[in-house]
Amino acid sequence: MADIPQITQIVPAEPKEPKPSGRPERPEKPRFAWLESLMTAVNIPFLLVVFVLVGYGLMVCASAISATENGSLSRQVMGILAGLVIMVCVWHFDYRRLAGLSTLLLVVNVVLILMPLLPFIGVEVNGARSWVKIGTQVQPAEFAKVTVILFAASLVARYEGRLDDLREYLKAVGFLLIPFVCIMLQPDLGTGLVYLFIGGTALVMGGARPKYLVVTLLVAIAMVALVLWADELFKYETGDGGYEYHILKEYQRARLTVFLDPEADQTGEGYNLAQAMIAIGAGGMFGVGLFNGTQATYGYLPEAHTDFIFCVLCQELGFVGALFLLLLYAALIFMSLRIARNCGNLFGMLVVCCIVGMWLFQILENIGMTCGLMPITGIPLPFVSFGSSFMLVNFTLLGLIGSVWSHNGIATTRRS
């Protein structure tokens, strides 16, 4: 019988260890790792909405500026470019470093707001000493909006979402009123209302008890009525048959009351409101075309490139153009609120909510005053009205929202 060959187990040879080359081996990266890294650091949809909104606003602003000698398109463009640089820097900065600096932020607020009252540098414009001239003319109270937001968020965040003690609530309200009191020394009622709305947003989102908020609102309404009554009671006649008031100036009173009866003053604020409503109604569904608006071109509409720029938009681009702007605002606010909701830090949530609250107030007030639904306060329209300082502030606020988004793990958790 033939011998059966034995099957021997073949043991594979041990692989030889590669000789060290002196360079550490790098893990192989995915082909599109750079794109994933960019998406983690930058909120692309958020920036897309911002760029469309800024571009749309610049187009409308260019049309409004073409009809006046008080504005410069190149200055607006330079403000946007400088704002982009500031936005990138603030986006990269970790906002959480500012969480415990409420005292320092309050001091910065007071210094910025009171700066125009200093001799030699303060400049009075339209009855208010709100500007300083340092090489160029700037409005410090505009930049103080950023520090007011940070101060309000830092102050209220100390209570960790439970502001239910009456003594602590009154203390917080007192501190939040300091910027408003300072701005009324200029006086600048429009900016003061913005400060009040920022503080109110911080209190609402910071856990203040609802009954405290309702009582505060009623007291504020009563104080406004008391001021108007006292001003009317102690007014005195001037030589030309008019009246002089002690607290509010005549143009301030007119701005607050003209929306109740637009036909009462057809030569002052009533005239401005009438021309604004004519411009809005003349646009129809699709408008008369860009750069073809008659109210701004022939000078009927006052401050067409700043306070009443929404009227220029309505006349030239119609209802469709105005609706598109409102949709862009809605997208910006919705995406910002999502960032605030996903933020695991109370300070960051309050920062974003205060920014959104300020934008909402400015949008509703500006559009409302042009339609006769709100008092005329001279509040500009975000990302649309002319003003390089105004644009720098809004881009800084965009950077803060981006900083909250990128320094709280939101981008990472959304992709894990």
Fold and architecture overview:
The protein is mainly alpha-helical and 416 residues long. It folds into 2 domains: 55-92 and 255-406, no CATH class; 101-208. The chain has helices at 33-41, 44-65, 73-92, 102-114, 140-157, 166-183, 189-205, 210-233, 250-257, 269-282, 294-297, 309-342, 346-370, 388-406, 410-413, and strands at 122-125, 128-134, 136-138, 236-237, 243-244. The strands form 2 sheets. A 3-stranded antiparallel beta sheet has the order 1-2-3, with no helix packed on it. Strands 4-5 form a two-stranded antiparallel sheet. A hairpin with a 5-residue loop joins strand 4 and strand 5. Helix 10 packs across helix 12 (309-342). The protein is globular. The N and C termini lie far apart (69 Å). Mean pLDDT is 82; it is low at 412-416.
Main features:
two-stranded antiparallel ribbon; 2 domains; 3-stranded antiparallel beta sheet; 416 residues; mainly alpha; disordered C terminus
Give the count of helical stretches. Answer: 15
What distance lies between the first and last C-alpha atoms, to the nearest angstrom? 69 Å
> What kind of assembly state do the chains in view correspond to?
single chain
Helix content: 55-70%
Number of strands: 5
Q: What shape does the CA trace take?
A: globular
Q: Give the spatial strand order of the biggest sheet.
A: 1-2-3
Largest sheet: 3 strands, antiparallel
Overall structural domain count: 2
Give Rg in angstroms: 28 Å
Q: Given the helix and strand composition, which structural class is it?
A: mainly alpha
Helix and strand sequence: HHHHEEEHHHHEEHHHHHHH
**Residue fraction in strands:** under 5%
Low-confidence stretches: 412-416
Mean pLDDT rating: 82
